[in-house]
Amino acid sequence: QVQVAESGGGSVQAGGSLRLSCAAPGYTYYCMAWFRQAPGKERVRVAHIQADSSSTDYADSVKGRFTISRDNAKGMLYLQMSSLKPEDSAIYFCAGIACETGSPFSPWGPGTQVTVLA
After folding, report:
1. Nearest by Cα to 114 from 56, 62, 76
2. Rounded mean pLDDT of 86-90?
3. Nearest to 49 by CA among 29, 26, 65
4. Which of 2, 8, 18, 99 is the most exposed place for a label (fewest CB within 10 A)?
């Protein structure tokens, strides 16, 4: 599988917004997801999307604030984050996932750091 590449992270004040991008060529027909990992914590899935964008789902902690989307023509996955909180600070990763289980199967990219300042 082709490795993905995340971008768009940065530092932002609480309440602000960021848009993360993931270059994911070759994943057009796969479910995809965003994960995040805070220091000392496990990597957790925060959002996922079907291959045709027909369905999305979110972790309770980000529901109503984050929006996952994709542009298959460009091979891109996005995560629009708004009303950011300090607890959203983490390294964010994208990955191809098994639609039935949500388990990632693609090689992890370097991730992109998001820091939300109180």
Report:
1. 62
2. 98
3. 29
4. 2
Cα distance from N-terminal residue to C-terminal residue, the chain: 38
The answer to whether the beta carbons of residues 37 and 45 sit under 8 Å apart is no
Q: 17-67, pLDDT tens digit by residue?
A: 999 999 999 899 999 999 999 999 999 999 999 999 999 999 999 999 999
Cα separations (Å) of 46 from 73, 74, 78? 24, 23, 12
- CB 114, CB 80: distance < 8 Å: no
Segment 5-25 mean pLDDT? 97
- Rounded CA-CA distance 91/36 in Å is 5
Q: Give which of 9, 8, 3, 4 is closest to 90, Cα–Cα.
A: 9
Number of neighbouring beta carbons within 10 Å of residue 36: 24
The tokens for 96 are 């191809």
